[in-house]
Write a structure and sequence with these properties.
It is a single chain. The chain is mainly alpha-helical and 688 residues long. The protein has a domain of 392 residues. It is built from 23 helices and 2 strands. It has a two-stranded antiparallel sheet. A hairpin with a 3-residue loop joins strand 1 and strand 2. Helix 1 packs antiparallel against helix 2, helix 2 runs antiparallel to helix 13 and helix 5 crosses helix 13. The longest helix is centred in the C-terminal third of the chain and has 62 residues. The chain starts with a helix and ends with a helix. Belongs to the LIMR family.
């Protein structure tokens, strides 16, 4: 089993990252480099979270083995180990041989740092660039990141000059490397505490509110009103951008040097706009014959960027609106079925997607009623209580993990109790649950936050390339300090425990933070205590109230604006529900008509086809007979048909008016006005 657990987790974590990326990204439409870079960033961060418990269990086994093999004289040497147990040290089932974990952590850590500080920011600018060539996009990305990279280089250069001039500092390469790691972890820890304080309160509260059907339905109505406003804004913005594209397309003709750029922009437009612009295009025309002011390439690049953004936003709002409608209809169905006497769940609308037969067999309407109306609220309440308990333990441990005598951190107490009996399964499960809960609190906040329309992770393949890359940057910057914070909570970090024990492989690559004592003994220990203040602020919704005061509508039960938006959203959902009901009724009527009269219509069509064949044969046999006898009646029948199709509104006729009768105008006879009626040439081509 040596190394088998490591290989298994590497494979499983890859599929987990691939599944999440498939849910938020679009593999068919987005660039492959964006997908690969985001997948690599997510994969490395998830890998650190899942592999770290194996590193802890392996380190505890190595400490036990060292304590058993060392003599009392050696115990006062480089390693001060725990008192050896009388029983032998059992090798854990997930033991990883020496030398593998340091190399593994070094590759994972430095790859993630290269992604978050160099590659992903460059790819962000490349993805948002409106350039028409690879060279142009790279040039734009370099210019946009020049200030970003230049600031860091300036700070690092000033620090190197200060170290070289000051004789008191004698830093080596390893110490410079440690300082760089400490700077990155400090930035990540600053952001980590902010996100963690929000997630520790909001995740249990969201699950508790998930048991309230009325609460969820009201919040869905609120979201519907806000999303309709955003949807209308996106449609209006798209119309304005398409109007600019139309003007540019009409001004730049086919032989213009910038026509290729215009064609690239047109390919990014929706299909209906492409067809509309294609119909309005003139024939080939030399652009030198007309003295027009043509747009520059720089303005076309800006327009291309606006088209990409507006089309993505419009498509995202359309998909989110349909998803929100389904959610609202479902919650209304749950509210109606709660009082059902038959205890069978009845849907107002049938699912548009085909259901799995296996799920349909086991998840019957009766089972669905018991789960949705009876069991699910209680399950969410129990889960909320469990998550709230974990949150309290985390907050307590964050405030007391620096205390080593006595040990006040509950996570450290659990690990040390298991370490005495060398129960590696318990150690790995405790470590995994702890770091998994921390990562859920942090990562879920990353998925929930929205920075206007620049950063927004939308599910169902509606996240743009810029947001995907930005999420990869955040994950790579948050995961290393989160893992260090976890090792501090469990007292596996020698900087916290103040013991000269064998460190984990993960902390060994970070180097000794004693180079910067004010960070190791000050910021890393006392800054996480701010999570208490952030949890209190989140519990009382101080951030939500501040945003509401600034004009950003937030869901607040005691706000008049919230009540107005709920009423507006309820009316929007009711309108969409009536529309869908009419559509389904129409489809049902057509289906019933087809099932009832389908065979009769087929027989009627066969009879008509047989009659036509008879008439055609009769016409062929009598082709030499005079047709003047039938011509008058046929013309009269055609005239009657045309008169029936004409508009019945009264028309005023005079000598100069034009007769609208198609038979009169086609015959070209002389009218009382003294002129022949004929269609002018300009009117013939008006619709072309």
């Amino acid at each position: 089993m040596s190394g088998a657990a490591l290989g298994l987790e590497i494979v499983l974590v890859f599929f987990l990252a691939l599944f999440l990326l498939h849910r938020y990204g679009d593999f068919k439409k987005q660039h492959r480099l964006v997908i690969i870079a985001t997948l690599l960033a997510w994969y490395l961060c998830f890998l650190i979270v899942f592999i770290l418990p194996l590193d802890v269990s392996t380190t505890i086994y190595n400490r036990c083995k060292l304590a058993v093999n060392s003599s009392p004289a050696e115990s006062n040497g480089s390693y001060v180990t725990l008192a050896p147990s009388k029983q032998k040290c059992f090798k854990p089932w997930s033991y990883i041989p020496n030398g593998i974990m340091p190399i593994f952590w070094r590759v994972v850590y430095w790859t993630s740092q290269f992604l978050t500080w160099i590659l992903l920011p460059f790819m962000q600018s490349y993805a948002r660039s409106g350039g028409f060539s690879i060279t142009g996009k790279i040039k734009t990305a370099l210019i946009e990141n020049a200030i970003y990279y230049g600031t860091y280089l300036l700070i690092f250069g000033a620090f190197l000059i200060y170290v070289a001039v000051n004789p008191d500092f004698n830093l080596q390469w390893n110490q410079l490397q440690t300082i760089g790691i400490a700077a990155a972890n400090t930035w990540g820890l600053f952001l980590l505490v902010l996100l963690l304080g929000y997630g520790l309160v909001e995740i249990p509260r969201s699950h508790w509110n998930g048991a309230k059907r009325g609460y969820l339905l009201m919040k869905t109505y609120f979201k519907a009103a806000k999303l309709m406003t955003e949807k209308a804004d996106a449609e209006e913005n798209l119309e304005d951008i398409m109007e600019e594209v139309r003007k540019v397309s009409e001004s730049i003709k086919y032989n213009h040097p910038l026509r290729k750029c215009v064609d690239t922009i047109l390919k990014k437009c929706p299909t209906e706009y492409q067809e509309r612009m294609g119909r309005n295009m003139d024939d080939y025309e030399d652009f030198d014959e007309r003295q027009n002011s043509y747009p520059s390439e720089k303005s076309l690049v800006k327009l291309h960027k606006q088209v990409i953004y507006s089309v993505q936003r419009h498509r995202r709002t359309q998909v989110q609106w349909q998803i929100l409608l389904e959610q609202a209809f479902y919650l209304e169905d749950v509210a109606k079925n709660e009082t059902s006497a038959t205890r069978q769940f009845v849907h107002t609308f049938h699912s548009q997607e085909p259901e799995n037969k296996i799920i349909q067999y086991f998840y019957t309407p009766t089972v669905e009623w018991y789960w949705e109306c009876l069991l699910r609220p209680w399950f969410y309440r129990v889960l909320a209580v469990v998550l709230a308990t974990f949150s309290v333990i985390v907050v307590w441990s964050e405030c007391t993990f620096f205390s080593t005598e006595p040990v006040l951190s509950l996570f450290a107490v659990f690990i040390q109790l298991a370490e005495k009996t060398y129960n590696y399964i318990y150690i790995e499960m405790a470590c995994f649950l702890t770091i998994f809960f921390l990562s859920i609190c942090v990562y879920s906040t990353v998925f929930r936050i929205r920075v206007f329309n620049y950063y927004y992770l939308a599910s169902h393949h509606q996240t743009d390339a810029y947001s995907l890359l930005f999420s990869g940057m955040l994950f790579c910057r948050l995961t290393p300090p989160m893992c260090l914070n976890f090792l501090g909570l469990t007292h596996m970090d020698a900087t916290i425990s103040h013991k000269n024990t064998q460190p984990t492989a993960y902390t060994s690559i970070m180097g000794s933070m004693k180079v910067l004592s004010f960070i190791a003994d000050g910021f890393y220990i006392y800054y996480p205590m701010l999570v208490v203040i952030l949890c209190i602020a989140t519990y009382f919704s101080l951030g939500t109230r501040c945003l509401n005061l600034l004009g950003f509508q937030q869901f607040m039960g005691d706000s008049e604006m919230t009540s107005d938006l709920i009423d507006e959203g309820k009316e929007l959902i009711r309108r969409e529900k009536r529309k869908r009901q009419r559509q389904e009724e129409g489809e049902n009527r057509r289906r019933e008509w087809k099932e009832r009269y389908g065979n009769r219509d087929d027989s009627t069509r066969n009879r008509a086809l047989h009659t036509d064949q008879k008439e055609s044969s009769f016409t062929e046999t009598n082709a030499n007979r005079p047709l003047s006898k039938y011509t008058r009646s046929n013309g009269r029948t055609e005239r009657d048909r045309i008169e029936l199709l004409q508009d019945a509104e009264p028309l005023d006729f005079n000598a100069d008016s034009v007769n609208d009768d198609p038979l009169e105008s086609d015959s070209g006879r002389y009218q009382p006005g003294g002129r022949y009626l004929s269609m002018s040439r300009s009117k013939i081509f008006d619709d072309v």
